[in-house]
Write a sequence for this structure.
């Protein structure tokens, strides 16, 4: 069956450290993968999109890698801050026609 | 304007009621989506519209009826819902259905009593 799995439901880290979140998928060959942030009671907010021919993408303190051989994406937040505390979701368009499916999310908590 | 606006923010309805959720965007996006999200779960795709035509229906029960009157508006008509349909309903839009990020609204918190 087709699956998108994020490595943990919750991740607790100390302020200033790097948070690393993992997204694994099976039985897909996505052309791109996306990461979103969601705060409680609010809609997801787009963070980064990485295409299959891109190994790495950066935006300020965020970095995403995409390994189509391992079928895995890693999402890094460097110099993490308490304001980074949220749920982070990876998403794939499994049909390349708008069927955007989300992993179950990782709830990140950054402690001061 | 980079917003997707959803109304109402909260809705309580009885199982015999008919109500509608509304979604509006003025970014010129040609793809619009409805998602359902239960607590502590990821958003679950319901419908996709591309150029005002329904392109994906994820086997959603007929008590949910989507409508796209024009390229800026998306409605979700609700009828004879069940308590288990209580959830956060999210609308999203994107420039098209391929290779682009989605912009989400803040959602409508629906409670069916």
């Amino acid at each position: 069956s087709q699956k998108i799995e994020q490595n943990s439901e919750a991740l607790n880290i100390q302020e200033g450290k790097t948070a690393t979140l993992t997204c694994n998928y099976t039985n897909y060959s996505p052309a791109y993968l996306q990461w979103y942030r969601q705060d409680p009671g609010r809609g997801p907010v787009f963070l980064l999109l990485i295409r299959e021919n891109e190994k790495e993408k950066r935006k300020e303190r965020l970095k995403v890698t995409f390994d189509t051989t391992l079928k895995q994406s890693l999402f890094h937040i460097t110099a993490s801050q308490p304001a980074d505390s949220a749920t982070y979701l990876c998403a794939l368009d499994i049909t390349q026609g708008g069927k955007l499916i989300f992993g179950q999310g990782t709830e990140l908590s950054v402690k001061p | 304007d980079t917003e997707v606006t959803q109304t109402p923010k909260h809705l309580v309805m009885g199982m015999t009621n008919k109500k509608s959720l509304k979604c509006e965007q003025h970014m010129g996006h040609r793809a619009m989506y409805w998602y359902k999200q239960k607590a502590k779960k990821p958003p679950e795709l319901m419908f996709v519209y591309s150029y005002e035509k329904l392109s994906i229906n994820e086997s959603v029960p007929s008590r949910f009826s989507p409508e796209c009157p024009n390229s800026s508006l998306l409605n979700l008509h609700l009828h004879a819902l069940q308590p288990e349909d209580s959830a956060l309903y999210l609308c999203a839009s994107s420039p098209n259905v391929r290779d682009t990020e989605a912009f989400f609204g803040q959602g409508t918190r629906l409670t069916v009593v």
Remarks:
- Chain A touches chain B at residues 31-32, 34, 41-46, 49, 51, 89, 93, 95-105 (CB under 8 Å).
- The CA atoms of residues 6 and 104 of chain A lie 6 Å apart.
